Amino acid sequence: MTTRAEIAAIIDHTLLKPEATSHQVAQLVAQGAELGVFSVCVSPSMLPCAVPGGLAVATVCGFPSGAHSAAVKAAEAAGAVAAGADEVDMVVNLGLVKDGRLEAVEAEIRAVAQACGPALLKVIIESAALSDEEIVACCHAAEAAGAGYVKTSTGFHPAGGASVHAVSLMRATVGDRLGVKASGGIRSASDALAMVDAGASRLGVSATVAILEGLED
Predict the structure, then answer these.
(1) Tens digits of residue pLDDT in 2-44
(2) Phi-psi region of 123 (alpha: psi -120 to 50; beta: other; left: phi over 0)
(3) Organism's domain of life (predicted)?
């Protein structure tokens, strides 16, 4: 998976800046369709989001801190799916993870997974803020709770974004049973290829144009 089209087909073309406007979202959709990406990822307040056929709509939940109650996250996810989201990227409660309360983490993810219904749930674990043991534990919780993907980062945490090490560890933990999404700080073709080589099956990026320009057809 090295060509421009192959990489584009696993990209969530993302615009999650708080100040993003509806006009900018419309531009994102048009650009995403032109580039051949898998989806556009927008804030839940931008839903419903009209897209051409073949382009999926993703959104976020409990974003970016993850420090919302499980009930609020579940309600947000349900509302997003009702408004047309095909995929929901939720942020885990990092405080629960750091407290070692993995049963509570799993219960929260399960509540959101159930609220998503047919929509795909991706679980953002904010890997740069976690130890290897915590990354593995979060991946196990996400799998047990019915998530479809584990995802590295929001891109908003000061600890940083995706790393090859985290992606490799996440892939080793979930095997081929779940998808792995690398997100946060991926800004070049070499970054994207390194994440794919490490095991990422989806990329969340805002620098889509720059990444694809660095790849051959």
Answers:
(1) 899 999 999 999 999 999 999 999 999 999 999 999 999 999 9
(2) beta
(3) Bacteria
Please report the DSSP string for 40-64 in residue order: EEE-GGG-S----TT-EEEEEESTT
Token code pair at residue 124: 């953002």
Cα separation of 97 and 203, whole Å?
Answer: 24
Q: How many helices (H) and strands (E) does the chain have?
A: 9, 8
Structure tokens at 55: 């382009």
User: What is the residue range of 83's domain?
Assistant: 4-213
- The string of pLDDT tens digits covering residues 36-91 is 999 999 999 999 999 999 999 999 999 999 999 999 999 999 999 999 999 999 99
Alpha-carbon dihedral angle through residues 177, 129, 108, 76, given to the nearest 10 degrees: -100
Cα separation of 156 and 135, whole Å? 18
CATH of the domain at 49: 3.20.20.70
- Residue positions annotated with a catalytic role: 89, 151, 181
Count of the separate structural domains present in the chain:
1
